Amino acid sequence: MINYLLSIPKTYLFALLSGFSWSLTTILAKHYLLKAVTPLDLYVLRMGLGFPILSLLIVLVLSSQKNTTPTTNYLQHIKEIITKKTTPKLLIAFIISIIAGFFGIYMFWKVLEINNGSYSVAFVWPLVVLFTTLISYFIFNEKISTFQTIGIALVIAGLFMLNLKS
Q1: pLDDT digits (tens, 9 = 90+) for 36-46
Q2: What is the rounded CA–CA span in Å between residue 40 and residue 46?
């Protein structure tokens, strides 16, 4: 069994773990967290309290391990990234990413607060795929294959079908 799991391509394994993690987050938010706090409260608690604590733990763990890179600890490594790789364009992309991430997760939690988890995920995540593909095509000139075009059409059809009243 272990050998089989190790033979799965990394992309598939990471995608499965990502999907499972996001599904667990969605289920816990819907059935527990959003019943106790508002989406804004949840965001502030998670991002303002939870992520800094988790980040600190990660830094402590990574700093305590033997590091084969020239840096002596992870904080020094982060400092080097900031001082050597930060450009105005990268900083703007980072800030937009933070703002877009806030609105994305906040609006998802608003949808989740109003609807079932299965509907919320089935409605929002295909839009993520659709918008990512379209932005990549129009702004970054990424190519869209025939199969991707068919997939986009199916996503749009699926969104319409998802919202049909029976």
Answers
A1: 999 999 999 99
A2: 10
